[in-house]
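In practice, a research group might receive sequence data for several interacting partners and want a quick structural hypothesis before committing to experiments. The following worked case mirrors that situation: the sequences arrive first, and a predicted assembly follows.
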Amino acid sequence: MTHRSRWTPLLGCGAAVALIASACTTDDGGAGDDANGNEASQENPGASGAINGPLNDDPTTFNPALASSLSDYQLARLGFDTVLRADEEEGVIGGLASDFEQSEDGVELTIRDDAYCADGTEITPSVVADSLSYLSDPDTGAPQYAQIFGSGDVTVTVDDDAGTVMVELSEPYSEITQGLTHPASGIICPEGLDDPEGVDQGQVPAAFSGPYSMTESTSGVEYEFTFNEDYDRWPQWSQELEGHPAETLTFVPGVLDTSPNQVLTGEMDWTPVEHFDVDRFPEEEWNYSQGAVGAYYVIFNTSGVFSDVEMREAAAQVIDREAFQQVVDPTSELIAATADAGVQCANTDESFLIDQDPDAAAELLEGEAVNIVSTNVIGANGSGGEYMQDVLASAGTEVDLNNADVGTWLDVVMSPEEANNWDMTIWSTVNVAGLTVNGLNRVVGPALDEGGTSFTYEENTDATDAYNQALQAEDIDEACGYFQEAEQLALEDIFIVPLTDDPNVVVSREGVTVEHIAGREDLSTLRLHD
Amino acid sequence: MVEKLQGLKGSPWLYFLSQKLLELIVAFVVLVAITFLIVLLIPGDPARVIAGPDASQEHIEFTRQRLDLDLPVWQQFWNYLSGIFTGDLGQSFRTNEEVWNIVAIRLPFTVTIALGAIVVAFIGAIILGMTVAGLTRGNRNRWLDVTFSWASATLQAFPTYVYGAILVAIFAVALGWLPAGGASNVQSYILPIAALSFGAVFSVARIVRRETANVLEMDYMRTARGWRISRLKQYVKYALPNLMASTLTLSGLIFANMIGGAVVIESVFAWPGLGNGVVGAILDRDYPVIRGIILTIGVFAIMTNTMIDIVLAAFDPRTLTAGKAFS
Amino acid sequence: MTMANEAQAAPTQKKQKRRLHPILLAGLIIMTVVVLIGIFAPMWFSESANVQSNDRRMPISADHPLGTDEFGRDLFSRALVATRLTLLLTVAASAISVVIGVTIGTLVWFMPPRVRQLIVGANSVAVAFPNLVIALIIAAILGPGAWTAAFAVGIASVPAFVRLTVNMSSPIMARDYVTTAHLLRVSKYKLIGRHVLPNMAEPLLILTASNFAVTLVELSGLSFIGLGVQSPDYDYGLLLSDALTMIYAQPTQVIGPAVMIVLAGLGAMLIGDGLAASSNPRTRGQRRAMRTGTLRPAPAAANEQAKEQEAAREAAEDPEDEIDVRVRDLRVTAANGTELVKGIDFDVRRREIVGLVGESGSGKSLTAMTLCGLTPEGVTATAGTLVAAGHNMLEPVSSRELAQDIALVYQDPMSTFNPALKLNTQLTEVARTHLGMRPSRARRKLIERFEQLKITSPEHRIGQHPHELSGGMLQRAMIASSLLAEAKLIVADEPTTALDVTVQAEVLRQFVSATQELDASVLFISHDLGVVEALCDRVLVMYRGEIVEELTAEQLGSRRVEHPYTRKLLDAAEYVEAL
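A structural hypothesis for the assembly, expressed as C-alpha cells:
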C-alpha cells in the first residue's frame, strides 16, 4: 500500500493508530532476498557495529503487553522474546518455548532451560507464566488481547518440574499458537512486572528478555538499542540468516518521508520504500526484502442501499481490483479474500470473485445514492477512496465520498450510531501476527451494534458457523479448512470485495540485511555483513 | 534604555510595562480557555483512536476511563487548569509521556529553525532591500526596480515546502552535501532554515525596500546628507534605525508565520519539532499534547509580541506614549 | 515642504493619473489570465483532467504535456482545472478576513474605550499567533475539506485586518467631521459608510491584494499537510502535495501546479504593488527613466565654459575677493522637464547676510540646496558657475571640507532631526566624522555650545531624543551644531517659520550672534519680508524661478521697490503686521 504522501509523516505514518502505521510501509514486488542465499552459521559470531534506520512514528509504549502501533511491535520484537515464533515453512516454531502442544483447551508450552533476561535472571516457566498472566489480566488492558487469546478468559498454570506452562482458554481459539507469535505477547522479565509503568517508558533494564535492550530514548528524536551480549537463542527459522547482529541499533521516528533519501545519502542503513521510490534503488546495488502489513478489501454496510445482494453484486462488478492495484500501489499483490498470502489460511481461490460487468451493473446502480467512507492513507492522498468513488460514479450512482483522516474514519465505521451514514468502506488490516481472524472478523459474527466486530451489520450466518467451527478446531490445519469456507461464503454473499495486500518493501544498503519472516517484517533479523 | 529604566518612577515606562503585563495575563487566561475548548470540538473519539482499530469495545471503554475522558467536562477543565498552575500539562494519551517533556524536546527544534530563518531572512532582506532602494532612488536603475518587483514577487509566491523539496533534491540527494532529513547534526539545520527563510527574505526585502524609499525621502535624511557622511553610514546609521520600527513590528508577524511555516516545513524534513508534533497529535486526538503544544506556541506568540513592543519602545520612545490604545 | 514636493508641484499630473501603473497593469493581465483559466478550464479540460485511463504515470509526451497521474489523468489539464477551486477558495477566504476584520475594526470605535482596549489588546495577541496553526485547529475541528479550509484560513487572517483597520481608522475617527457627525447623532452605520470606509478603501485594497497571495499559499499549505482540500476535489496545494510525493519518480509532475500557484500569487502581488505605487504620490507620476538629483556644469560652448570655470576657480582660490558664494546661470529642471529655476545669478560675500525671499514654489529652496551640492531627488540642476563657501561645487570637493564649511539650518526642526537617534549623536556627527574629534570631546563641546545658546540643562538635553524637545530648542540645537563645526557658510532655509512668534525672535537673535561669532556668510531663505529686513544686508526676490529684484536692506526699509511682485509681498507683510 502506499500511504497518502511521503511528505506527511505524521499524517501518513505517524498517527497513533496501528492502522496508519501499517499504511506507511510498503512493498514492491520486485526484489530478491540477497540475504539468505547460503547456509551460514546461525551461531552468533558476536555482535559489533551499528545499524541506523527509521521508525513510522514514536512508539506509544515500550511495554509489549500494551503495544498498539506498528512501531510498538517493531521494537517489542527486539526487546522481548515471544514463546513462539512464526516461520515461513513450519508456520509456527519455538521461541522461548522449545516445544508446544495445541489442544481444544489451549496450548501447553515447554519452556527452554537456557534462556536468561538482560540482567541474567533465568527465564523459568514461572517467569513466562507470570508474564502471560499479566498480559491476559483484564486490568492490564492489553489492546491485542483478542488477537492473542481470542474472545474468552485465560488461565495460565505452571508446572515447574515438567518445565511447562499451560495456557487455558475459556472460549476456543484455534489460532492461539499463531497469536502467541504476536510481538505484543513478548515475555517481560520479573523486574519489569514489578514496575509496569517503568516498562511503559522503557526504563527497566532488567525487564528485557529479547536480543536487545533499549539503552537510550529521546521521544520524537531517537531510540537506541544495545545487543544483550549473551543472547544466542535465535529461532531455528527454516530460512537461515547470514551475517551477525549489530551491537547497536538506532531508530529515528517519524522520518519515513525522508528516510529513502537518507539511505541514499548514507545517513541511514535501511528503510521501507514506497512503490514510486523503488526505481531509485537498483536491485544490483541494494538489498531488498518484501512482505506485507495487512490487506485491503471493500466491506459493504448492509443497513442501507447494499442490503440487497444484487446491489452489492453490481458494485462488485464495477470494482476492478487490478485497476485499484495500479492506482494505489502497482507493486502490491492481489488478494482473494480478507488476508494476504502471508496468512496461512487465506483463501486463494479466485473463482469466488465477481467478474467485471460494468454494463450490467450500471442498470442497477443508475441513480442510486452511495456514501463511501474511506481514509486518506489508502493510496496517495486517499487515491484508493477516490478510485471507488470514480468507478461507482461512472456507473451512474450519486457518490458521496468522505475521504477522512484515520481518526474520523474509524469513528464512522466503528460506531454503531453511524451505521446509516455510510454504505461502503475500504477496510485496511494491520495483521502483524498473520492471523486469519484479523480481517475475517469484520465480516462474520455479530455486528458492532450487538457487541460483535462485524461491520456488515447483517449477520452472515453460514459464514459465521464456518468461522466458529474454525475457532474450535484442534489444530491449524483443521481450522484452515473452515476459515476458507467462511471466507468463500462471505464472498458468495458479496459482503466483501477483495482488493490487494498492503505491501512492505524494505531496502537496505550493501552489508546490511533485514528479513520478512512468514511475510512479516522482523527487526530482530537485522544483520551486518562484513 | 538603561537611563530610561533608571527614571522609571512616574515615567511612561512604568505605565507602559504595567499595561503590557496586564495584556500578558489577559492573553494567557484566554489562551488557556481556548486551548481547552478547541480540543473538545475536534471530532473523533480519542479513546477509539488511541485503542486502535482492533480493540474491543471493552478495551475502548477501559481506555476512556484511563484517559479520564469519562469525567464531566467541568472536571476535565478543572484538572487541566489546576495542572497548568502546578506546572503539569498532563500526559500524552498516546505515549503516556509527560507533555512537558514532549514540548521540552520539540520546542528547541522549532525555535532554532524559526529563529535561524528569521535572522537569515532579516539580514538578507535588509541588505537586499536597502541596496535596491539605494540603487533605485530617484528613478535610478529602472531595470533593477522592475526586475526586483517581479523576481521578489515570483520567489515569494512559492510555498516554502516546494523550496524544501527542491533543496533536498539538489543539496542532499543529488549533491550529497547536506543531510536529507532529521535533526542529527548541525548540518541538518541548514536546509530547513534555508527553505524557511528563502521566501521570507524576499517578502521582507520588499517591505524594507519600500520603507527605505520612504525614509530616504525624509527631511532628516537630507540633514544627514548635508553632513556629507558616506552613503553607507547614511544608510546604516541614519536610515536603518528608522526602518527598525516598521521592520520589527513586521518581524513579530513574520516570526509567527515562521512558526506556522515550520509546521509545514517540518514535515518535509521529518523535523522533530512542534509542527510535526501538533499535526500528529491532532490526527491521534491526543488532547493533552495538542493543548500543550498550542499553549506553548501561544505563550511564545504572546511573549514575542510583548518583547517586540518593548524593544520597539526602546528604539523609538514615541511609541511609549502614543501606542497606549493599540499596538 | 520637502524639495521633492516642490518639484512635484508642477501642474502636469492630470493626464497621467488616468493611466494604469505598469506594475498594476501587469498584475491585472496575469490575474485576468488566471481567472479566465479558472472559468474556462473546467469546461474544456474536465474530461482529460478527471476521467481515468490506463495511461498511468506517463512521462511528458505530445498527448500529455505534463504527463499523467496514477489514474491516468492528464496533469496539464488538472493543473488548469484546479484553478477554479483554488481561486474560489482563496476569494472566499480573503472575503471572510476582510469583511469580518474590517467590521470588527471599525465597530470597536463605537464601543466604550475600555472594551475597545480589551478587544484591541486581545487582537494584538491573536495577530502574533501563527495563522497556519489557527487554520490547522479550525480545520481539525470542522473536519478537513475545501470549504472548511477556506473558512479556517479566512478566520486566521481576521486579526491582521482588525489591527490594520483599527490603525487606519484611528486618524480618520479623530478627524473633526467624524466627531461632529457623531455629536450630531448621525447613525453609526451612516458614519462608517460615508466617512470611515471610503477613507480606508485604498490601503485596504492594497492589503487585500497582498493578502490574497498569502492566503493562496496558506491554503495550499493546509492541503499539503492533509487538512485542506480532500480528494476527489483538488486545488493547487493538493496537486503539489501529490507531485512532491513523486518528486523523484516523476519530477515533471510538480511543474503544473507550481507554475499556476506562482502565476496566481504573482498576479495578486503585482496588483497590490501597482495599487500601492499608484496611490503613492512619490512614484505616481514618475515613469521616465531619468536620473535625477544631479548637478552638472551648464552645457555651454566649450571656450565659454572654460572661461566660466576659470572664473569659478578664481573665486574659489582668491580669498581676497571675499566671495563666499557665486552662482551663475543656475537652472533646476524637474523630472518631467519643467524648468523650476531658470538661470539665476547672484553672489554672497564674506560675512554678508543675504536674504532670498519668495513664495513657496518660487524655487528658493531648490536654489539653496543645489548651491550646497544637495540637489534633491526628482530634479536635475546645471550651472555655469557654482561656488559655495569658496568651493567650486561643479568639481569634486572633499566631503570633509563641505561638511565643515557649509552648515544648513532647515525649516521644520521636528522633521529635520532623525527621530531614532539622540541629539548628541546627530549634532556631533560632523565634528566626529570630519574634524576627527573624539566623542567625549565633541560631546563636551556641544554642551558648551548649548550653554552658549541658552539651552537649559544641556547635559540632559543632548542625551534626549528629538521628540522630547520643543521646536525652538531643536532649532537652537541645530545652530549649535554649526557653531561646533565652525562653518564658513550657513544656509538657513526658513529656520523660524515653523516656530511660535515668541520663540522666533529669540532664535533669530541667537542665529545672528552665532553667525557673527563664526564670521560666516549667510544665505537666509524666507518668505517673511519683516524678518529678512531686520536681518539681511541684501535681499534677493525670487519669483517663478527667477530673481526679479535685488535690494539692499536700506531700499527695503524705505520701501523703494520696483517689481510688482515685491510690492505684493510687502503689502502682504504689512497686512499681517497690521493684524
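Before designing any experiment, note the following. Confidence is low (pLDDT under 50) at residues 1-44 of chain A. The longest helix of chain A spans residues 476-492.
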